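User: I would dearly like some help making sense of a protein record. This is the protein in question:
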Amino acid sequence: MSPRTCDFYAGNLTRFVALAGQPLLTLTNDAVAVHLFNLPCRPGGKHAYLRALRAFYFWAEERGLVVANPCNRLRIKVPKPLRPAVKVSDIPRLLDSCDSTRDKLVVAMLADTGLRLTELASVRPVDVDLERSIITVWGKGAKQRVVRYGPMTEELLRKWLNERPNANGLLTMPARGISSMLYRLQTQTGIRCNAHAFRRTFATESVRNGLNVFYVQSLLGHSSLTMTRIYAEQVSSEDAIKAYEPIVT
């Protein structure tokens, strides 16, 4: 797991133990439910605690430390969050507002590939295959995959490679630097444009354009189709009607 994932589990479990006042292995289903209910946070925060607890008890059950996972039947209803995506019509404006070739390349690559922020920051020149228009990336869980990009990204890539200083990494800046650049662009244009918003745009537009959802899952690096469907949730019934083809002809 990534360091951030480990911090998520360790932090939530440690805080839950402190609030519960007793070891996790001694808690019953009812006790876990009561402590979750009494947590001083919103349903989304309680759901995050439940995710960490489920993972811990699954681990404990596999090793015979508990007879059964006390979280098995626990559910927390969380209001459906608003997940912003970048409108395709806004992308030209974002590109025009960029100050450099590198900034334009960041916007184009995120929109074209749906890469995660950390994945984009870790891309090296050697990972880019200009002849085939693909990039090899290492995603979550140390899983390797390839993504493809289009003509505009290729043009910006070639231009940037000619300008690029002799430094590590394709973009020569860390994830935090990319995030800061996108925030400045968002402030300047008023367009919500973080890396996850671009991933949602990529997923939705790929499905709208007729790409098989399993292919979209592979390109996004999702381990389950459920997550891909969440990212592509803006695909509507109208999109389905447009894509429909009669069975009987």
User: Anything to note?
Assistant: The longest strand covers residues 134-138.
